[in-house]
Here is the input.
Amino acid sequence: MLTKNRKLISFDWAIKKILRSKANFEVLEGFLSELLFDDITIKEILESESNKESREDKFNRLDIKVKNSKDEILLIEIQYNGELDYLQRILYASAKTIVEHIKEREPYAKIVKVISINIVYFDLGEGDDYIYHGTTSFKGIHNHEFLKLSASQRELYKTERLENIYPEYYLIKVKNFNDVAKDTLDEWVYFLKNEDVKESFKAKGLKKAKEVLDYMKCSEDERLDYERYKESLRYQASMYESTYVVGKMEGVKEGTEKGEQKKSLEIAKTMLAEGFDIETIVKITGLNKESVLMLGKSG
Here is the structure.
């Protein structure tokens, strides 16, 4: 048994390196079952961007695509650095998955159900909660009634609820979590944030996660790979922060310079109207002679 505070490797690295094997599906299934309030069984891991070995695999973002026993496709994405258009990107990923998994000439009723699960470590949008759930529904403009599936549609789609035929989105804003686990889903969020599983936790999959993700049980190569990965994350976070700060400072400087230029032009325009000579205006405003002359012509 693991001792308290024993070092565990992070979920994002493990999901690519360890949890993809069928022997460890129990961990992923536990997490998904707690999040979706359903008993999830993973049937297979599907081709996704994270299967492709590229430089970006090693930091910032990770995604995995799985199919469950209901033939629904679950997209799990973990993102560290902020993206202003991230909400559109997850929409694109869902749409792309739908297109990829419908065969030519198949009816639209065969469109696959997609559940997009996004674990983000940056401030996405404005909101104090740490788990958000988005679905599609249709509400009447006049009577405010929600559109329902007909009996024949319920038979066709094998579901009672209209929103179940459209993609669903889950946003887990890890940094918003206050580290107080009030239920089993919170226990998973605690692990995602702190890379730690408390002895008292009872969430599905966490006991297995504690066994599988034990840092000390990794091979030497796996530990080295993991440390390189964490270092890459730290480096990328530092680069992102530096770029953001420098960009913000340059933006302030540029804005200040533009403001001063505008003010000088206004002063020059007033002085021209008052009959001051060009040399005096140049000396007082700091503008060059050509700019003052152009003002005189435009005036």
Q: What stands out?
A: The chain has nine helices and six strands. Residues 220-273 form the longest helix (54 residues).
